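quick one
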Amino acid sequence: MISQNTVTKLYNDILGFPDHGKVASYIPELANVNPDKFGVFLKPVYSEGFGVGDFEEKFSVQSIAKVFLLALAFRKKGEDLWERLGYEPSGTSFNSIVQLEYEKGIPRNPLINAGSIVMCDILIDILENPKEDFLQFVRKLAIEDDIQYNETIVTSESKTGYTNNAIVNLLKAFGNIHNDIGEVLDFYYHICSIEMTCRQLAGTFQLFANNGIVPHTQERILDISKNKRINAIMQTCGFYDEAGEFAFKVGLPGKSGVGGGIIAILPHQYTVAVWSPKLNSKGNSYKGMRFLEHLTSETVSSIF
Ligand code: GLN
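structure w/ glutamine:
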């Protein structure tokens, strides 16, 4: 079992490394964060876990929330989900449009923006109150009610979301968006604006390390096959055009967000959340990637 001392030592090592990353500024509100924040929380399955640094501070989870979207959409639609999107790595950035045109409006996978926007459209058709129902779903996974959307971030992203506008319009032109594009983007921006601490994030992802069951309530959210598939998608697509690098260096299924968060999962063992806002050129937390690389190497705890 990984000890708190080991995690603290690794945290302090990485804290001293030069950070070559840059805080995301294409969503203006995200640039207001203190760039030196750094928090870690590791939660073994069925145990309380421990944190170091800024692990109790909330941050914008951004694309990490796409995994909750996938869990809810896959749970509701089953295999039919794959009629509207694929599950292959894209090898392109999170907001790339190029593939979408030559693949006729079918996004490569659920974790790039195009795939998540299609899942939002699917859920608008199924859920009675999409924003409220999604938030309740996340709170159920977290076993905490203190999880909210940040409307300031939603407004900030809506005002500058030119690329996502292009994506949703192209999807609509190919017939892969059924609802009003404004409504779909509004739902998507809300999902991305959720704020959590590293401790909450590590807790919310526990079911993926536990065969689809939330450990502390014993509620089954996903069957074993769906849970396996979601972990596989995180492994192959969770870091966009850096998914290979993350598998190579860290060796765990995981997901990043432009708020600087990363979640990683060692099935049947633990979840670990890291937050450091400065991003590398692929939009993934610079220090977060390094911390996880050192963690899995030094504790010999990757899936490979
Ligand atoms: N809301 C962000 C966007 O759509 C999410 C991107 C990310 O976290 N990689 O651009």
